[in-house]
Amino acid sequence: MQQSSTPAQSDTIDDAAVQIEGLSLWYGAKQAIDDVNLDVPRNQITALIGPSGCGKSTLLRCINRMNELIPNVRIEGQVRIDGESLYASDVDPVEVRRVVGMVFQKPNPFPKSIYDNVAFGARINGYQGDMDELVRRSLEQAALWDEVKDKLKDSGLALSGGQQQRLCIARAIAVQPEVILMDEPCSALDPIATQRIEDLMRELSSDYTIVIVTHNMQQAARVSDRTAFMLAQEDLVGRLVEYGRTEQLFTSPADRRTEDYITGRFG
């Protein structure tokens, strides 16, 4: 089984929604990720796995330019969505974050009503359509409508943790993104709520391209179509080790380090 410095990739991707090319990032003088190349297929779920500190969340935040909110960040390389560079000088980061939605590790509904949580982004973006219909449709897509349709004026903070996370997904959907990023979306949830979010991800992947960071190997195996394994070694810089179809990567990885991590020998 090979162990090389260049990542193993099992096949080519014909229809990539997101293309990451030669991506490196520094926080001040500290390099966090190095020369990542990754094509994310459209309308599939791609999981990023690897030990803590390997750059998974940093890579995820490069896809919607959220790292730029941190002082002294420097980025080299390209991230493209549908062939358009996200880091071109004429691209507005706010527009990038409309096209690329984000769901965080801890549910973070606004201290507003359920209705206003979902409508918030659409209002900011000047949505001119039927707002009631948009809120209903977004909550339906997030598998939450039946539970909240009679209490849309109640605070989003009054919902359970799993419901709050689905509310945050509805909020992301409402601005009609092309890509949804999820940074450990189930880590704060119980097993039942986790299963609902996983089922929801599978349903949403028919309409959206989803990239998820997870520490849960079983979750990556259950929900993703493709998996990317990242690792930071002695220099503490995150690099892509292997990327391929999830079933192949979990059953017959091309790199010994991938097998060692998946089987729990390290990490």
Overview features:
267 residues; four-stranded antiparallel beta sheet; seven-stranded mixed beta sheet; globular; alpha/beta
Question: Strands, helices and their partners?
Answer:
Elements: E1 8-9, E2 16-27, E3 30-41, E4 45-49, H1 56-62, E5 73-81, E6 84-85, H2 93-99, E7 100-103, H3 114-124, H4 131-141, H5 145-148, H6 161-174, E8 179-183, H7 191-204, E9 209-213, H8 217-223, E10 226-232, E11 238-245, H9 246-251, H10 256-262
Parallel strand pairs: 1-11, 4-9, 4-10, 7-8, 8-9
Antiparallel strand pairs: 2-3, 2-5, 5-6, 10-11
Describe the structure.
- The chain is of the alpha/beta class and 267 residues long.
- The protein has helices spanning 56-62, 93-99, 114-124, 131-141, 145-148, 161-174, 191-204, 217-223, 246-251, 256-262; strands at residues 8-9, 16-27, 30-41, 45-49, 73-81, 84-85, 100-103, 179-183, 209-213, 226-232, 238-245.
- It has a 7-stranded mixed beta sheet, with helices on both faces.
- Helix 3 (114-124) crosses helix 4, helix 3 (114-124) runs parallel beside helix 6 and helix 6 runs parallel beside helix 7.
- The relative contact order is 0.21.
Instruction: Identify the overall geometry.
Output: globular
Terminal residue distance: 19 Å
Low-confidence stretches: 1-5
CATH topology of the domain at 8-101 and 180-262: Rossmann fold
Concise synopsis of the structure shown:
The protein has 267 residues and is of the alpha/beta class. It contains 10 helices and 11 strands.
